[in-house]
Please model this.
Amino acid sequence: MRTEHSDPSAPASNAKETAGPAAPDDGTARTTEHRPATHVALLTGAVLLLALGAALSLCVGAQGIEPAEVWRGLLGTADGEAGTIVREVRVPRTVLAVAVGAALAVAGALIQTLTRNPLAEPGLLGVTAGAGFAMTLGAALGLVGTEAGELALAATGALLAALLVFTVGRTSPLRLVLTGVALTAVLTGVSVGLRVTLPDVLDSYRFWSVGALAGREQADLAPLLVLIGCCLAATVPLAGSLGAIALGEHVAHTLGVRVARVRLAVLALITLLTGAATAAAGPIVFVGLVVPHLARRAAGGSVRLLIGYTMLLGPVLMLLADVGARVLLPVGELPVAVVTAFVGGPVLIWAVRRYGAVAL
Model:
């Protein structure tokens, strides 16, 4: 008599039949495992790309500066206009690009992993729309007068919007995303209405809304940069628990992960990273979508490695986009958000074609 006990010689198909239905293809399972030596090589390559991007950011611009002159400017031994440009303009701008790129890219990796949606983007939580609405409302009420005031308004709006989205949609990732999309639509509509009816508000808002690094060098960005650095460091110990949640909440509970606490912490980090980056540089889209897609296959299914790769590749993309924004026009420069949109648009089309409408 045959029994239901497992038989080592049984075909593999029987195991598949007893394992239940396959997990939906959310894009997180399509990864390639790599050996540790491969990861070391890939991470080293990412670091070298980051160094190259930083060097280009310091050298390339409306006025080209030789690497030797840049080096003397960094050491403080260069005199004249070149030394001033390097120390007071390009170094702060490069640091800002690195911080904003890392913040948006890591926030994108976190939200895609948390929601198991490869098309998720930090703006889905209403953070960008909240910052824009706060800037618009502040301009209408006459609260926008200084750069520090603009940063405080944008950061406050981003935090309040994300808090509202989490309060309403915290029960499930799908509800969270839908709540964020709905709030984004409402806040965007109200903001556009205020800007259309109040021309002074439009004049005040448009300088922040272009999403650019130019002109932000002289602002006091130290608090936001410190906040971004602390949030990036806080993502590392959460990577293991987040990887378990990505396998499913039941699996995470079995492994002893406190799902509610981890989800709350991850949402707080996404909000702070995106809010700080948006407050510092304005709304810059697609970085949080593009970079995780570039890093996911190299990470080989490891959330910790995914965060590490995005932390390096996000600044690379932002630095190269900023360099391109400086040289694409014969006179003046483009906002960096326009360049990232040119890069991100085709990637979004590719992602939709690969993952299908289910991921939406």
